[in-house]
Amino acid sequence: IRSMARSRPRRIALGDTSDERMLYAALEARRDGLAEVVLIGDKSHITQGANRAGISINDIEILSPMEYRHIEKIGHEYYERRKEKHRSGQWTESDAIRELQSNELLFGAALVASGVVDGMLAGSLSTTGEVIRAAIHGIGLAPDVSVVSSMFLLVFPPIAVVREEEFSLAFADAAVVPDPTAQQLAEIAIATAWTYKTLTGNEPYIAMLSFSTLGSAVSPSTEKMVEATWLARARIPDLSIDGELQFDAAFVQP
Length: 254
Prior knowledge:
The structure is a single chain. By secondary structure, the chain is α/β, with parallel strands linked by helices. The chain is about 45% helix and about 15% strand. The strands form 3 sheets. A 4-stranded parallel sheet has the order 3-2-1-4, sandwiched between helices. Strands 5-6 form a two-stranded antiparallel sheet. A two-stranded parallel sheet has the order 7-8. The protein is globular and about 60 Å long. The relative contact order is 0.09.
């Protein structure tokens, strides 16, 4: 993942910049050549925080929603994306601009949508809900996606009887949808497979996890997982997916 990032450095905005951990992350990403970093927030506040922490950010760009010179452009684009959600007609482009200027996460998401930056990282101080709402409102969903979901990407060292080299696993959904339907589980599996392959370059192999393996127990939850597996296969026939499976059956190679 790091090699791919270095080969094609992306322009990444960082939110939650009042957290000094974000500033250290920005320095590390620049030092390691992983990304071109942009800090989102009030310039004076970020600079003061960096000075208190003894961090030099002189060479890192800061974009403030209150001072951004193209705020009318991204405000217009944001308005066009969201105006259908305000059917009363009382919401104007000026209102859209004020929303961007009052919400740094939303401003950062709008920068992504406008192509000013390639992506945004936040969540060290903001809640999951706040980050997701900013992304939904500021960017929106991909055309073929109807369920917002999350995934954890975990990188493991070699583990005896499992893998002889470092490997990665994606776990989804672990933070957004509390009780997904079978249809939602299928969509989450497909979206996670795409994200995993995009980030790692590896072919995804999907296990639909349960407390049962291929009928060893039957309950509404296991039946839901079986249905989700078939729905995902029907939508993407060449998807490598199996279920329902207990974790050990999915994880340990026979």
